[in-house]
Amino acid sequence: MESGEGLGTVPEHERILQEIQSTDTACVGPTLRSVYDDQPNAHKKFMEKLDACIRNHDKEIEKMCNFHHQGFVDAITELLKVRTDAEKLKVQVTDTNRRFQDAGKEVIVQTEDIIRCRIQQRNITTVVEKLQLCLPVLEMYSKLKEQMSAKRYYSALKTMEQLENVYFPRVSQYRFCQLMIENLPKLREDIKEISMSDLKDFLESIRKHSDKIGETAMKQAQQQKLFSVILQKQNNVKFGKTVYINDRIPEERNEIVLKPVFEEEDENEEEGDEETFENYYRKQRKKQARLVLQPQSNMGYGFPVNRLFDLLFEIRDQYNETLLKKWAGVFRDIFEEDNYSPIPIVNEEEYKTVISKFPFQDPDLEKQSFPKKLPMSQSVPHIYIQVKEFIYASLKFSESLHRSSTEIDDMLRKSTNLLLTRTLSSCLLNLIKKPHIGLTELVQIIINTTHLEQACKYLEDFITNITNISQETVHTTRLYGLSTFKDARHAAEGEIYTKLNQKIDEFVQLADYDWTMSEPDGRASGYLMDLINFLRSIFQVFTHLPGKVAQTACMSACQHLSTSLMQMLLDSELKQISMGAVQQFNLDVIQCELFANSEPVPGFQGDTLQLAFIDLRQLLDLFMVWDWSTYLADYGQPASKYLRVNPNTALTLLEKIKDTSKKNNIFAQFRKNDRDKQKLIETVVKQLRSLVNGMSQHT
């Protein structure tokens, strides 16, 4: 029996050895295990077989080594021979390299000298070029100094102009040029002061010698007149020629008067600040004329008229107040008749008609084909026309006061400012507060005020064309359209936020939750879907508003909706809430989050809008997952998953759910799961109360 068993195991051991040699090491374990699972002496026999196999392999390895040993010895011998040749080659290469280095040192020195010379040559060329640019500037500046020393101020001003426009831009990168540029305004101011001093001296001289100047001028005029009459009689000169001779008289008189003012120079008379000198000269000459024409104390015409002018100014103020009241009614009528919709334009004729009444420019709109719409409503061109009519009405009275153009310009601008800042602003604010003005109308009002604000510069040009007083004049009053319409826009924006929140409240009041439901409906509440559809449509209208206004309105609406939903959930009159109602409420909040994620108004960064619902989301997640252990363990930690959940809020909602659980489980109190859940709720309630009490004591 034993010999039979031995014969059977030998082929099996050979198979196992073949598997060990051929298979992967990871599969050896099961193969070896089969040795121990066989007959009791199989392990000893297997080891004997394994030793015999190892000896066979050792013999094969020894044969293999003997076979390749002679080749290995031959390779070592060849390497030893090559070693000697390699050492000789190394010596030769080292010697060649040394000789190359020695030969190249002189070349390197000469190359460095050449490079140094080339750099010096290039620097010299650059210096010469820069000096050629700088020399004309220095020559012109030296010429300017000479002209200033010689009191040739007009020539000096011309030289300054050439320096600024031609020479300085070429060398503006150098510091000496910057010093020259900074010095030019001081030189100009010196010229202005010196010229003003000369002008004052000249006017004072005219005042002292006015009698002689007038006498000389009258004599020369009389002589010229007599000479013209004699010449006409002798030669029968035409009328046109006589007129020409007479026209020369003022020029000759001007030469007599102005010759002492400025020096005779090659270039021309000094100009300086032309407008300043001209105004000063006229002002002083008017004063001198008043002094000359002032009546003596013994004449029957020297009565003062200041009180009469004061009375006229008071009448003017009352007239302006009357105009303001009248135009307040005009503005109210315009606002009442407006439909607060963009102006439809059917053809080119209608477009030109509107543009002729109101200065509107939009290249993109002009490229569009008809029919098209202008962004403003009908009230905008009507308001613009009525402001111009007010300016005309105010001008009629101001013209009768015989004031200067500058004073009339100032009166018109002040009256127009009163119309904008008081009358029109008040009408706009009253319009915005009216109950029948809805969100669409408020959006249109904001657009209208933007275009009216842009039109204020055209009103300033309109006044300038009437009075011929430039807007660049120092004392010219500006129109306050910017502040007027900016305040109106802010008021309209605030009213938009208020009305939008009121509309949200109206939808929320339609909510009809079954707070005791056992299971949710599986879809969002109808009132909420209607509210979201309303918000989508209204935010489409907001696309015409500035981006910041639309974003603020959208964020305000989402925050208000989130607050309203939270208040509904925590309402003190709501005593019990089932988990089914919480799940239904969660479906509604999900719709709110989807709405926020759909970017109803462009421009929000990331999930900024979704953060409006973060308080609700974390609170509902806490109750849906029932993750009270995490909430209580991480409370107060900055990285808490439920960081926005207030313990007082969680306690209020949990107590409402606890009361519902007690009521529903009155007959199921003997079931273990229900008892455990109730105990868990009571434990969490105690821990939350402890947190709330701790917070109140700390406060």
UniProtKB/TrEMBL annotation:
In what residue span(s) does the Exocyst complex subunit EXOC6/Sec15 C-terminal domain sit? 308-656
- Keyword hit for Secreted: no
Task: Give the matching Pfam families.
Answer: EXOC6_Sec15_N, Sec15_C
| Cited Gene3D superfamilies | Dsl1p vesicle tethering complex, Tip20p subunit, domain D, Exocyst complex subunit Sec15 C-terminal domain, N-terminal subdomain
The residue ranges of the Exocyst complex component EXOC6/Sec15 N-terminal domain are 49-218
Question: Does the keyword section mention Cytoplasm?
Answer: no
Recorded superkingdom: Eukaryota
Question: What GO terms in the biological process aspect are recorded for it?
Answer: Golgi to plasma membrane transport; intracellular protein transport; vesicle tethering involved in exocytosis
- Residue ranges annotated as coiled coil are none
For this protein, the record's InterPro entries field holds: EXOC6/Sec15, EXOC6/Sec15_C, EXOC6/Sec15_C_dom1, EXOC6_Sec15_N, EXOC6PINT-1/Sec15/Tip20_C_dom2
Signal peptide residues are none
Q: Which family does it belong to?
A: Belongs to the SEC15 family.
User: What does it do?
Assistant: Component of the exocyst complex involved in the docking of exocytic vesicles with fusion sites on the plasma membrane.
Could you tell me what this protein is called?
Answer: Exocyst complex component
What organism is the protein native to? Balaenoptera musculus
Q: What is the lineage of its organism?
A: Eukaryota, Metazoa, Chordata, Craniata, Vertebrata
